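Appendix B. One record, verbatim.
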Amino acid sequence: MKPFINSLLICLLSISAWAGGTTQQPQKDMAACFAAWDNKLLTLETDFTQTTEYDGLLISQSQGSISYLKAGSKLRLDNKDGQTITQTALTDKRTIWILDEKGKEISTLSWQDWLLGQPNQALFDFGNYTQLLNKHDVSVLEYKDETAILRLTPKNKAENYILYVAVSEKNCFPQSITIQADLMKTTAALTQTRLNAELNKNLFKGIK
């Protein structure tokens, strides 16, 4: 269950911290564009690579794939070793089912109970990124190569973290996300992404 939780913290969500700065500015409101992209998202398939560092020291690295279906709020996350699935998480945003490498259910947990323990609740919550933006002060940290780095700081000052989201100006898709909290930094990059394409109906078969 631990690899799933570590991956989900990213997932979704997932962005690298961007060094440097530039005076160049995008031609559009990138936060509004990001929210509009999320509102139009019907399906998503993407690969992800996630790393977690503490004070610059790499402590974990994982990779896998994410599948999302807006209808029914269905989400599938596969942790992988190369091309081999080692663990799967399925959710309808009510219950989370954890499956082993053979697709056998090994545990369940409540989506809401899990969310309550997470400061970055909406990070992996496709379809609700507008709420995420509304809970943060958003600024463009950097813009180059048609990509804007959005810096999100919580409006609730009791929450001590910063999000960095790399958003493509071309399609407003979040290419990567970094969560920085004190000395802990988790970075996820999304690649091989397919937006609003037809999904295999068996992907969410384990959701009851």
